[in-house]
Amino acid sequence: MNLTNVKQSPQSNTRIVLAVPAFPKLSETFIVSKFLGLLERGWDVHLVCRQSNPKDWEAFPELHHSGGDIKQRVHVSWPHRPRWLAFLLFVPAMIRALICAPKRFLKYLRIGCKRFGFKVFRTFYLDLDLVCLKPDIIHFEFGALAVGRMHLKDLLDCKTTVSFRGYDLNFAGLDQPDYYMEVWKEADACHFLGQDLFRRAQRRGCPADIPHSIIPPAINLEKFPTPERTIGEILGTKEHPLKVLSVGRLEWKKGYEFALSALKLLQDQGCNFEYRVIGEGEHRAAIEFASYQLGINGRVCFLGAVPHDQVIRHLQWADIFLHPSVSEGFCNAVIEAQAVGLPVVCTDADGLPENVADGITGFVVPRRDSIKLAEKLTLLISDPNLRLTLGEAGRKRVMEKFQLDEQKEAFHNFFVI
Amino acid sequence: MDKNEPLRVLFVGYGTTGTTFLTRLIDGLAIRGVHVTISGPDRKVVDYFPKGTVDWLWAPSWHGFSFLRMFHLLLLLIKALPSKRKPWLRKLIHNKGSSIDKLKTLYQYLPFARGEWDVIYFPWNSSAIDYLGLFDLGIPVVISCRGSQINIRPHLRGQESYVELVSQTLDRASAVHCVSEDILSNAVRLGLNPAKAVVIRPAVDPVFFHPADKPKKSAQIDLITTGSLIWRKGYEYLLMSIRLMKNMGITANLHIIGGGAERSRILFTAVDLGIASQVMMHGKLPPAEVKQRLGKADVFVLSSLSEGISNAVLEAMSCGLPVVTTDCGGMREAVRDGIEGFVVPVRDPDEMAAALHKLAQSPELRNKMGRAGRERVLSAFNSQAQIDAFVNLFESVRVCESN
């Protein structure tokens, strides 16, 4: 169901507050572009986060040269740890709320008292920024952020909307059957990255008729110039080693261990390759150990976190993009790989089959299946023509389906509730 | 030195809580008349042991500069005044660059300025590295090589200086204990001289871990595994085997005992593979409950990617359970393929499922292998013999040095 034209309101009078854990983040560029996109459309957008690292701001020049007031629109919550500090800050917090939004503050306390009793002071402190900003719509950028916050709808007289991006549906509260019940009941609209995630939500109790939009991630194609790709060689030889690239945080969810097992099979077949992995994360030791244990250490290069412009360089270096995830919302990195005309070999985790067209822009194999991954890599190695065709189709697919402008339009429509 | 005098051993790096096997070792040593001292920041470390059997050496840990820290330092200084080891301390401090480093070093080593020991024992390679200065005391040092510090960490990227320090400490130790032949050969590759290495395998108390009295009646197959929920245990591959078994027509239950960071990974994978109803996570349990759970299970399964040698497997064997284990570390030294259970390659769910399938189908095979496991523990992994071996090891370095 689309939410367009239910009630057309002048968006400049509508204040949307986006709630995120940290802003800006290299691994969450989509939030930056959504934020900017909504501003462009004239919405009065603010953003509330727990953390904001000045160093990360440098990685996003667009946040600096698109108007000077962006920093004023990003609000970092007051600390709530250590507890004594939160305790000390409580009175200033009340004063601030009284000055900024007296009516809402009083209403918050009045209704909140009935609902939470004394705990209202705690929730108020956590909600301080949202109270002061007087939002018309609060949008939670991840499902788990909305859990336990749906009271805001009544207490602040606003609408609440939620984005579901993968982790929230696959992991958060998995052992609590009614984890999202309140969200399903109260949310005014939900956004899912893909059909698969919507189906997963339904398996977790989301009603099929909940107002929702499916808006896949998108990229700015201008940032991804296509290199001149010509029909190449048969790869994997001594002269022409196969160049494989993966981009994604070093987490177990990304399934790197299965990719390494697949490459081990390739090595056993006598294939010469180089594998580059871009990303950092807490599963690094496990992945490095797998690479050692499988005996392919010398061919694998862990590049760590890499700035965006350099990622493009590595994308242009590679012959094949490998994405072995066992769980994935939709995956921007795979869209980017298609944008530069790389054939993709990925798994069928969550949104990936909607991202990559199997047999057209790459290959989609069952997750946790190293043998199938290796088979598809072998197929691509020996067929330069196929690599080229899949790559070109990939670029075309991104142009048609995952363009940033269309996504901005879709988000705009999403908020015209 | 008179050989009849009781042996005095200083444990450095016991940690704040210690692990079950270290606690058992210290207990056993104390019973044999060894005088054990544990260094640590908190008296709690000796609370577990019968009063008066184990000594505690106050060695507070440094968490940044503070007034409390300085107060501690003053106390330590006063306690160390009569020490004859001042030149040792002076030398240690002299080697440090900045004054804060000097202060930290002083703080770290002052507790050791007094006290007489025959042997300093580091139960981990990392503790030997942290207390490099103790090697200069002129007291023989024994280090244990147990597992991931020898067969994982050296193989990760950017660990050159760690590898260097490991080989340096192994080189300077008077004797080195390895938990398995496999760990020994790994340590030799890191520069250990095999002549001063001793393999003492872990052990279990066969009286505590004994086979369940009543044989299980239900036809349902219950698999069990115990261990921290960490990546090294390879649980995702195990869950894949359970899925494969289901495809073969066997719906086995899997009981996972242990806590840790990978809980959500296991939860997700079980749901994703459609076996959530077969996977039971019991969290971390005390030994008595672990024993109870083992008694109710049919097969123990270990899916580890790397091990020194798994205590959990020995406990299960002691309880008369057949074992399916991956071929990593010293596991082959505990489980012989086809005798006490099956040994399958790491990261190979197909092979693991095939082995589990064999055991699931034959109660006779389970009984036979379970009995063989119990016998093996009684003959080769007996805790009494293990403690004797440790006493001998410590005695031997004392005798060497005094000669």
**Assembly state here?**
heterodimer
Task: Output the structural class of chain B.
Answer: alpha/beta
Largest sheet of chain A: 7 strands, parallel
**Rg over alpha carbons of chain A:** 23 Å
Specify the number of helices of chain B. 16
Structural write-up:
The complex is a heterodimer of chains A (417) and B (403). Chain A is of the alpha/beta class and 417 residues long. Chain A folds into 2 domains: 3-76 and 135-218 and 404-414, Rossmann fold (3-Layer(aba) Sandwich); 221-401, Glycogen Phosphorylase B (Rossmann fold, 3-Layer(aba) Sandwich), CATH 3.40.50.2000. Chain A has helices spanning 29-40, 54-58, 62-65, 83-100, 102-116, 120-133, 143-146, 152-155, 167-170, 181-186, 195-203, 256-268, 284-293, 308-317, 332-339, 352-355, 370-381, 384-401, 404-415; strands at 15-19, 44-49, 74-76, 137-140, 159-164, 189-192, 212-214, 242-247, 273-278, 300-304, 320-323, 344-347, 362-365. In chain A, the strands form 2 sheets. Chain A has a 7-stranded parallel β-sheet, sandwiched between helices. In chain A, strands 10-9-8-11-12-13 form a 6-stranded parallel β-sheet, sandwiched between helices. Chain A is elongated, with a radius of gyration of 23 Å. Residues 1-9 of chain A have low confidence and may be disordered. In chain B, helix 8 links the parallel strand 6 (175-178) and strand 7. In chain B, helix 3 (86-94) packs antiparallel against helix 4, helix 9 (235-247) crosses helix 14 and helix 12 (311-318) packs across helix 15 (363-380). The model of chain B has no long low-confidence stretch (mean pLDDT 92). Chain A binds chain B through residues 170-171, 174-175, 252-253, 257, 261, 283, 285-286, 288-290, 292-294, 297, 302, 326-327, 367-368, and chain B through 152-153, 155-157, 231-232, 236, 240, 262, 264-265, 267-269, 271-272, 305-306, 346-347.
